[in-house]
Amino acid sequence: IDSLGAGASGVFGVELFVTLDGKVLLNEVAPRPHNTGHYTQDACAVSQFENHLRAICGLPLGSTDLIVEAAAMVNVLGATSGTMEDTLRSSNAALSIPRSSVHWYGKMSCSAGRKMGHINLTANSHGELESSLHRLMDIEGIPLSLLEMSSRRTSKSPLVGVIMGSQSDLPTMNAAVDMLKKFEVPYEVDIVSAHRTPDKLVEYARNAQSRGIRVIIAGAGGAAHLPGMVASMTPLPVVGVPVKTSTLSGVDSLYSIVQMPRGIPVATVAIGNAQNAGLLSVRILSTSRPELRQKMMEYQEELTTMVNGMSFKLLELGSDEFLDQMEHKNKSVNV
């Protein structure tokens, strides 16, 4: 700094890293504002670069809050061959990845290992982010084990909350969980009794939105007040699952959930059909997530193929032989 001369002032960008054990490491000091902001350009309310300029000018600092659910940055380094063609491979690939932004530094030539730019990725969850990251990391020669280490430290933020009134409801509600797994939607599962843990119910319903939950699936049996009470205290969509009971076969659960007063909606599925609750949650999320919508369309195609296959087999074998080969011959309708 003394080399600037008397009366001169300079700008130094200081980059620090905080390690898991609380140590602060000095990474670099650059005689300029720090680079244009890394992932913060596309993932935060105000970028790192803008906040640096605000600090220099004595202006109030802006919010550093994330405006997306998940984000990552991949550095683009000069290829080992030293050619621009090889160096641009990851940037060209990123152009076809949803929600990716390529930030090129405008350098006219490259050499092996020279930083040429970076690619920002954003997504609705860490699970969605990983597939895009894998692709770019492979091109850049970054070990995938680094991503696995990061995943172990960072839990995926759940988008769907699956709650039930009792542990006895879990065998039914697990079908919703299976659907969320199939569509790779982050979720959480908990027991929240409307009658035995009312304080927990209130806390869960009121805080779900701020924790990143976007849909709540609530299952209950008998005097099934859980879905309706949650719906009365959250702005989020609530999907109710009437759990089948030993006394009234779940009709009591159905009436308790479906007969909500005006102004407090609960989307109620068939008795015991938690699978549909999971699917409905995916459809709700897909209104703002094209990748989920595509997966749902593929799932619907799978159903069409399956039923067409059954139709072909029935026509080929005839009803008697087809019935003999059926594993489940229950005459009641299985929804």
TrEMBL record:
Pfam families: AIRC, ATP-grasp, PurK_C. One of its GO terms (molecular function) is metal ion binding. Keywords: ATP-binding, Isomerase, Nucleotide-binding, Purine biosynthesis. The keyword Lipoprotein does not apply. GO terms for biological process: 'de novo' IMP biosynthetic process. Residues 2-57 form the ATP-grasp domain. Its EC number is 4.1.1.21. InterPro entries: ATP-grasp, ATP-grasp_carboxylate-amine, PurE_ClassI, PurE_dom, PurE_prokaryotes, PurK_C, Rudment_hybrid_motif. The keyword Protease does not apply. Coiled coil: none annotated. Pathway: Purine metabolism; IMP biosynthesis via de novo pathway; 5-amino-1-(5-phospho-D-ribosyl)imidazole-4-carboxylate from 5-amino-1-(5-phospho-D-ribosyl)imidazole (carboxylase route): step 1/1. HAMAP family: PurE_classI. This is phosphoribosylaminoimidazole carboxylase. The lineage of its organism: Eukaryota, Sar, Stramenopiles, Ochrophyta, Bacillariophyta.
